[in-house]
Write the structure tokens for this entry.
Amino acid sequence: MPTVLTHPAISLAVRAVTGDTVTSSRLLLVAGICSVVPDVDAVGFLMGVPYESLLGHRGLTHSLPFALLLACCALPLANRLDAGRWWAFAFVFLSTASHGILDALTDDGLGVAFFSPFSNHRFFLPWRPIAASPIGIVEAFSSSGLRAFTTELVLVWLPCLLVAVGARTVRRLQSVRGRERRRGTARDRAGLLASIWPALLIATALAGASIFVGGVEGIGGPNGHVHPSLTPDEDQAMRTGAIESLERQAAKLAALPGASCPQDFSALETDHTLRIGMFYGYDEHEGRDHGRANAHAMAHVLTSECRGDLATCGFSIVSRSKSVVELASTIGGRRVEVNLFTSSAAAGEAEAVGLPSSGPELDSSGDSVQEHFHRELIDSDIVFYMGHSRLGGSIGFEEQSGVRTVVDSLLRLPMRPVLAALRQRPSRLRILGMFSCESKRYFREDFRGANPALSLIVTTGEIAYGPAEQASLGALEAILSKSCGRAFHESMIPVSEPNPTMTYLFRGQ
């Protein structure tokens, strides 16, 4: 749901359009309170009321009949509210109903029971660009809460403020023209500017705040800032740390008891080489890593000597370029290829690591990492992505500002070639793993719609880059060793993150 601070924005915008002669301050106060009243059902979480029940969150109090009931209560109070009876009714109804509409625009949770108590069916609107805010005062100030409020600033508050500025400007212009006809003075023009500059200043501040919070909280990268290049010592330290992290996960995997279920992986049992593509998205580790240290660490672990029943070992490096490391092995009499694709580099890093100084990093074939990703979604049996979710608007292979992230989450233009690749037939792809924050919420619906045959590995919460790498190694081990059930999920639990955030969804789940 949007935060409690955002729901009254609609009422404030309507007041700005109608003016204080139509919508009094008293009526605005009552309508503003009614706009947040529906969330009183959140106390049900403390009382054990099931989320999906009639009295659960986004249930009865979020419905249109409930908004109608509150609006009827405003009718006998119209005189005390200094408003006309039917306008008091309409304004309170609109303010209360807007709560459910905003909730139906969010990207998580259950839908809104618009027609409760007659029907408890939950609805979402087709367009869901607003990040859902976590419930609770403390949770509202978490990174998820701040990201949610960032989207609200851009998608709710800023449009409402622009409507308010526009309405006030129109009324002021009408007043100025009327006075100029009578007196022809220029003083009212100055009054016009004086009346709208505070609102314009606030709009600018909101836009700046959204960019700042978006960058700091990681929804869109470091806002185009070019970071200094890595020194050789820093580069080596990153690689060493990444290797140690994956070696700890490999040691854990070697100690896990296996539980094989070959039937769960029958879709992968073909006569061709098993092809696996692992993509390392833009990494905000000081904004300077871009996945090469992580790809190097994965290659190191995969080429290590085998111990126990591990399958993720004994690979040989077939070739290596600036953007991809190709490895191969024979497992159970079948050739397995793993391709590790790295991401684009910042301009300031190019000189230190010998990469192109601008544009996406290209390999010897001239293809960018995005083009590789789209192609591997067709040509590979398994594809893993480790990087930012970027509010579900794009796959992050380069630096990106907070504003661009929000725009992409609205228009989703960068996702079109991804979904087009998933829809293409024939396709070898059987398993797609998204090791990025809350990827189940952002990608599951679209990916399943594009290719219902996919099995997905997705996150149910936030995950840092290190644990994401460990989880990807665990998932690769589970697939190659044909683990199932509890063994599969235990393999994906990062050794550095005791709380599991990954889940494996078989076809149709």
Summary: Residues 220 and 402 are 4 Å apart (CA to CA). Confidence is low (pLDDT under 50) at residues 192-198, 209-228, 285-289, 345-366. Strands lie at 274-280, 316-320, 324-331, 334-341, 382-386, 431-435, 455-459, 502-505.
